[in-house]
Amino acid sequence: MRWALLDTAVYIDVWERGLRPELVAELRNAFVIRYSSVVLSELRRGARAPAARRVVQALFRLAADPWAPTAADWWEAGALIQKIADSHGWDDGKRRDFQNDALIALTARRHGATVVTSNRRDFELLSKRLGVTVLIV
Predict the structure, then answer these.
(1) Which tens digit of pLDDT belongs to each residue from 46-78?
(2) Which residues contact 30 (CB under 8 A, 6 or more apart)?
């Protein structure tokens, strides 16, 4: 069975935007879902309401052994972001936002996993540069 990392956008789309609730079940049938420490941190940072914090905490408890970027992933992310951002004329804010996506993609690539996301623009760029498999939902 193949592994997948779900990007933060997928959780938000399901929880807050009503994106096909059955999507997570379909993904679990197609992949072994692993958890990214980057995604868990993004979700925790954005969980402002008590109910949202409870949901994120439950997800964190479920994620027994989240995958984390290595020092080499961080180093490669810096160079990758510099090249992509320079070629697109991105400001510092976009560069910071893109960093987490790059770390998620690098972690997935290292493990041979697919990134599942609704963030088409950023992850298609990363897929082209890194060769990581991306599934847009």
Answers:
(1) 999 998 899 999 999 999 899 999 999 999 999
(2) 2, 4
Q: What are phi and psi of 25, to 5 degrees?
A: -65, -40
Instruction: Count the helices and strands in the chain (H runs, E runs).
Output: 7, 4
Q: Quick one: 2 exposed, middle or buried, by C-beta within 10 A (0-12, 13-18, 19+)? A: exposed
Q: How far apart are CA 85 and CA 81, in angstroms?
A: 6
Q: Are 7 and 117 in contact (CB under 8 A)?
A: yes
| Region of residue 109 (phi > 0: left; psi between -120 and 50: alpha; otherwise: beta) | alpha
Structure tokens at 91: 């400001």
Whether the pTM exceeds 0.90: the reply is: yes
Report the distance separating Cα 74 and Cα 79, nearest Å.
Answer: 9
Domains of the chain (ranges; CATH) run 2-136 (3.40.50.1010)
Average pLDDT over residues 36-54: 94
